Amino acid sequence: MLIVDLLTAAAQAAPQNKFGFKEALEQGGFIAYATVVILGVMSFGSFFILFTKWFEQAKIMRQYNELKASFWRAPSLKDGAAKLEKNSAWRQIVDDGLAAEEAHGKMTDALEAHDWLHGSLARSENAINARLASGLPFLATVGATSPFIGLFGTVVGIYRALINIGIAGSASIDKVAGPVGEALIMTALGLLVAVPAVLAYNYLQARNKRIAELLSGFSTDVLANINSKGAVKPAVARARGAAMRAAAPAATA
User: Rounded to whole angstroms, how far apart are CA atoms 241 and 198?
Assistant: First the structure.
C-alpha cells in the first residue's frame, strides 16, 4: 500500500503538459482552427487528385501496351478500333480520325483535306491532354499558397505572444510558450501540405508529357494510314508481321 500511495502522489505531483497540439489550437481560437481546416482540405484534395490522376494515367498506359500488340495488325482502322476499349483515349483518336475521313470528301483541294484531317486529330489530342491536366492547377495552387496560409497562422501566433509579453511585462516562458508553439505548428503544417502537392504536381506532369508524346505519335500513324488508304503502318507492326510469317514455316517444319 505504501508503494501505491507513493506512485499516486508522484503522478499527481507531475506537471501537466499544457503546450500540446490540442492546447495550441485551443489557445489560437478560431483563426488556428480555420487555418488547420483549410490546410486539411488542401491536403485531402491533393492526395485525392494524386491517386485519381495516377490511376487514370496508368489505365491509358495499359491501353497503349495492349494497342501495340493488336491494333495495327487489324486489316483496317475500323476493325482495329473495335478491339480498343470504349471511351479510351486511343479509341477517341481513331474515331475522330475516321469521322474526319468521312467529312474530308467534301474538300475540293487535297491540301485542304490533309489540313482538315491533321486539325481534327490535333483537336482530339488537345482534348485528351486537357482532360489529363485537369486537377493539376489545384496541386500547383496548394503548393504555392499553403506555406503562406501556414505563415498567416504563424504571424497570428507571434502576435499573440507579443501581446502576452506586453500584458505580463516580462517574456516569461509560460506566457509565450503557447503562442510560439502554435506559430511553429502552423509553419510545419503549411510545409507538410505544400511539399507533397509540389512533388505530386511534378510527377503527374512528367507522366502527362510522356502520354502526350505517345498520343502524338499514334495520331501521326493514324493520319498516315488514312491518307495512304491503309497502306502505311508503323514499322513496329510491319516488323511483328514479318517475324510471325518467318516463324510460321519453322513451326510447320
Answer: 45
Mean pLDDT rounded to a whole number for the chain: 77
> How far apart are alpha carbons 150 and 121 in whole angstroms?
45
Cα(111)–Cα(118) distance, integer angstroms:
10
Q: Could you tell me which of 149, 148, 141 has the C-alpha nearest to residue 38? A: 149
Contact by Cβ (8 Å): 49, 138: yes
Pairwise CA distance, residues 41 & 224, whole Å: 48
* pLDDT tens digits, one per residue of 193-219: 999 999 999 999 999 999 999 999 888
Do residues 223 and 98 touch, judged by C-beta distance below 8 A? Answer: no
CA pair distance 27, 15, nearest whole angstrom: 19
- pLDDT of 3: 40
> What pLDDT sits at residue 155?
78
Those residues with Cβ within 8 angstroms of residue 100's Cβ, 6 or more apart along the chain or in another chain: 116, 117, 120, 121, 226
Q: Which of 127-131, 138-142, 235-239 has the lowest mean pLDDT?
A: 235-239
Distance CA 34, CA 17 (A): 24
| % of the chain at pLDDT higher than 90 | 26
Alpha helix (H) residue ranges in 71-109:
77-82, 89-103
